[in-house]
User: Which sequence fits this backbone?
């Protein structure tokens, strides 16, 4: 018999390849343009712009944080860091795809630096909670930075060390954020893109620690 505890256990532990859902070969349908910024979700992106990928819990609220930032050209929500190809939201929420909910951020580095994006990332959620953010429990909601290139990897790692020091001084726990080269990003369904712009009374459990992150300590 399958018990609730079994599902919770799966949600708190990443699946093995033999346990992961099979997924599909074709991408799931999504919207073509950003609801707020009116830019093409899948590009082409302007030459010289850079891409960042963050997981900080529920991607509805996380995406809104980034699209409001000056210098961000477009954002999109999706899934990354798991096993199942082209997963659906329903599949991801089972914990059997291995993916985290993430936000893709395309930005103009001349206006907003990667260090500034990292500052917003660290200050907007609690990176010490493991496989959850607040009341959102499961591997889907884990904290993650997926990097594009060596410069981002160095900056992300430096930011981790600097912010963990600040958290420890404040009596907080250790950071559990996953930092790794960017895996394949799968765009989420259209109804999840810019969800809080379409549903302004929607809820999200994102909440920071209240501890500031110093940009000078995390610049690349």
Assistant:
């Amino acid at each position: 018999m399958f018990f609730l505890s079994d599902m919770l256990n799966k949600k708190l532990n990443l699946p093995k390849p033999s346990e992961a859902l099979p997924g599909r070969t074709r991408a799931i349908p999504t919207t073509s343009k950003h609801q707020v910024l009116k830019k093409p979700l899948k590009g082409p992106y302007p030459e010289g712009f850079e891409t960042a990928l963050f997981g900080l819990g529920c991607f509805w609220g996380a995406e809104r944080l980034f699209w409001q930032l000056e210098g961000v050209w477009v954002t999109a929500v999706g899934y990354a860091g798991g096993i199942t190809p082209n997963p659906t939201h329903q599949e991801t929420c089972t914990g059997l795809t291995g993916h985290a909910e993430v936000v893709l951020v395309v930005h103009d580095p001349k206006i907003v630096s990667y260090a500034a994006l990292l500052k917003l990332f660290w200050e907007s959620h609690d990176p010490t909670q493991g496989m959850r953010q607040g009341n959102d429990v499961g591997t889907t909601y884990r904290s993650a930075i997926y990097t594009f290139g060596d410069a981002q990897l160095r900056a992300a790692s430096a930011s981790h060390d600097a912010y963990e020091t600040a958290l420890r001084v404040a009596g907080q726990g250790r950071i559990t954020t996953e930092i790794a080269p960017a895996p394949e990003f799968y765009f989420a369904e259209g109804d999840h893109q810019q969800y809080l712009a379409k549903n302004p009374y929607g809820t999200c459990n994102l909440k920071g620690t209240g501890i500031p992150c110093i940009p000078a300590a995390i610049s690349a």
User: Anything to note?
Assistant: The first helix runs from residue 4 to 12. The radius of gyration is 17 Å.
